């Protein structure tokens, strides 16, 4: 069943721009690559841990290292949300996770955010620009984009990790989560 889901998700690659295909990976493909024992991969959830707490977590990821963090002291009036800022230690924290696993900069780093577009793809592009040539991102991230029309407009119910039948939970794994009480 999982392999059929992966095939269906991979077909979605044909709809991506040519540049993105090189950097994109379907959710099912990421799942298989990690669970079937590819040891030269670091799978990173790049969401703010508070978002994970409310949306859900895929324990298949190796670690949570946020690409963007929420600044709860600054409000974005235009978007009506708290301001996000780039994690200033993102590259150092990714390198530390690679070192911890005995992996080099040439390892494949797969990032996953909520929808794939605002943090997933940008974090993979940032990693590539910072000397990690095999960084990629999960297409449609953990939940996928919001439905635009109809009675379910605004809900994230069509794609991404969570909606592809891949394992996830509402419970976080404290050993994998970004925690300021344990960061150097």
From TrEMBL:
Indicate yes or no for the key word Signal: yes
Segments forming domain Rhodanese: 37-154
- Signal peptide range: 1-20
InterPro entries, per database record = Rhodanese-like_dom, Rhodanese-like_dom_sf
Report the superkingdom from the record: Bacteria
A Pfam family found in this protein is Rhodanese
Q: Which Gene3D superfamilies match?
A: Rhodanese-like domain
**Keyword annotations for this protein?**
Signal
Residue stretches spanning the membrane: none
Presence of the UniProt keyword Coiled coil in the record? no
- The name under which this protein is listed is Rhodanese domain-containing protein
Q: Which organism is it from?
A: Zoogloea ramigera
